[in-house]
Sequence to fold (551 residues):
Amino acid sequence: MTAFGTAAGRPLQGRGGSPGFRFTVYAALAVVIMYLDQRAHYLEPARYALQSAAYPIQLAVNSPPTAWRWLRESFQSRESLRAENERLRAHQRDLELLAMRYAALAHENGELRGLREALPPVAERWLPAEIINIQLSGLRQRLLIDRGASNGVFKGQAVLDDRALIGQTTHVGPWSAEVILITDPEHAVPVRIERTGLRTIAVGAGDGSSLALPYLPANADVRGGDLLLTSGLGGVFPEGYPVARVSEVHRDAVQPLAQVRAAVLSHIDSDTEVMLVWFREGHPAAPASTAASGADARSGSPAMQPLAAPPRPAAAPRPDTAVAAASPPAPARAAAPPPRAAAPKPRAGPQAPVPAAPGGENPAAVIEAAAPPGDSPPPADTPADQPQVPPR
Amino acid sequence: MVTVGQMRFRITLTALVALILTVLPLPVWLDALRPAFLVLTVLYWSINTPRAGGIGLGFACGLMLDVFQGPVLGEHALALSIVAYIAVREHQRIRSKPAFQQSLLVFAALVFYEFVVFAIDGWTGHPVTSPLRWLHCLTGAIIWPPAAAILSYSEGRPA
Fold:
């Protein structure tokens, strides 16, 4: 056994006060930084600068896997390339068929909504981004991607892969951004069950592949295999994108709430690329942020007016407050379940023709806005709204 | 004879290498076992050159860690400052211990470090309660003797 560092007579003499004094200064500095970052968010510029300083290191760290992938791809055999080409061609043909059908559906949907022409798709712009670093430790589920503010990425932007929703950006640097996954225990995404229209909130379970639905009552209509779509509440994610599929439902006689698990549809572990999406402002299926909805009311959007002048005073204000309460500015932390509309279930069907008068051109949006976000499944005569992404 | 400037350069270099080792992407099962290289490096320099390394080094390294993997800026900075302060205060006692006892002390320091991070995680509302987060203290203590030998080589004297 040797003793490390027994060399005597260190020539090094630093400056500054005693260790105790320096410790006090640095500890106080750290606490102040933490307070400012946590409470006041004053440190976004500082974090931005530090993140840009850290970018070269992240690139260096990422270079071995990138080099390995490049090497493997460049030595791929001709046969495997041909096979992949064949597969992609078949896939492309399928997609083209789907797209043809999609155009017809979009047109039909536009007619149903009473608009003169079909709505443009809700996604305005896509940007593929490469995953630089993955933190899937079971503790935190984060990604680092190689696009940042210089590409127009903003905080709270939706991130998708080719199958489903992945998460949203949390910290944006100049050339990189951190993405919190929907499976992170700190993340919650407002969802809607496709089969019943029931809205709830899905919280990350922290194991990398599943979500928990902790706010469903024991008698809620949910079963295994149900597809969960984003509900569009909360102001971050647009409406109608696939999120997860219910994998297990456990009902306990003594528990008032059902224990529901859902498996996410995206494949983070095999992805190398993700998609950053910009959404069209003012689109009915776009994320309904509180600021945007206020502007809508002023500018006279038909979706908002009937709520301001309810025909039935007993029923109508409730959906209004419900919608407002369910879309707080910080949607990811919205731990509260959407308030369930109480006793009188206002059926959307009979209510629709009355308030449609002031706006006059978008009855479908009216029905959607006025439908209670509670546990009553919507009536069968709800129109086939919003363009659906075909479930896989 | 090594000047202070050279020493600072070497310390920065080792800290950079340790940071890269810390953020290098690894498979999930290996990730839990990964020792906290940066904490070990800060501990080494705080024990062996308490003037050139020490609390300021701990703070700077912690801030870099926060940028890479901290939910709140300043979290790892505070934890590493505390650990570095203890190491600087007790450096003469730790330095003269044989390697095995040093490993035990390093284990205690790592547990304390992880506890501080754990507590701040909880207070700031990002709790991570998985028992796996404590695993790296053990691997860190195991890897301490070879790590210290490598670092003492970088310091410019035989181990």
Observations:
- Chain A touches chain B through 52 residues (CB under 8 Å).
